[in-house]
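EI: anyone free to look at a 306-residue chain?
SC: sure, send it
EI:
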Amino acid sequence: MTFFMNNVPKQNSLRAWILASRPKTLSGAAVPVMIGVALAYADSFLYGGNVFSITAAVLCMLFALVMQIDANFVNDFFDYVRGDDDPSTRLGPLRACTQGWVSADAMKHAIALTTCAACVIGLPLVFYGGLEMILVGLACVVFCFLYTTHLAHRGMGDILVLVFFGIVPVCCTYYVQLHTITFQVVAASLACGIVIDALLIVNNYRDREIDRNNGKLTLVVRIGEKRTELLYILIGVASMLLGLVFLVSGHILAFVLPLFYFVLHFFTWLKMRRIHEGRQLNECLAETARNILVYGITVSVGLLLL
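SC: here you go
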């Protein structure tokens, strides 16, 4: 008992804030930018190889990471205020405000700080991508709040993941470098979005009974557990099919290397079906996060090995 007491972080301490930022979720923010950067760098040689900007790439990555932390803080705070994070029924990882690791007032200030920090980091991207980057940044901030406060409860979470963890970051990261969007980039962004959506699907699969009882109409609640299990494996298949676009463009390794991701995804799917319910599904959540990172690395490396 003493061991667990000693491992409770002091309120508003550095350790408490690290836990609140949910470091394991940051791979979901990093992977789309990784893929967008790799695509842009590979294609930059079509323009003589001198158009790629490391500064723009770093700004895109920092913006994505800070926005993810901001979204985590927003989710933590509003779920606490609404009483959605009941410690007696929660199956997922513990949340900072509900556990008292971070005070509600401190979290409000942190949300304001990370939102402003994201805007400051993203603003210089106007120099690389034009004024339209302001609209993209504004949309990211607005939907960061709308996701937790409204859209997640209406089953819109999966669409938002596809858009803001696939289409927007991959395409915009590419666009600020080369000022165009290709069919290959769109296909890659869709593949990235659905791969990352697997994380939300596992999360909602685990919480399906609680969500159903609370009137939270996630996609899993709407289609049922059997169709959700089928959807999970189809995500892996669809990502591979979309990856065929790399073969057409001559990036053979960008298609071949992610097959390793698919093998991992397949075994996670088997485990998900076997466990079926309860807290043990957090193992599948962790494995899915790992699989997403593997996908991002294998696609990026495949693109960079010209």
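EI: The longest helix spans residues 54-82.
SC: 👍
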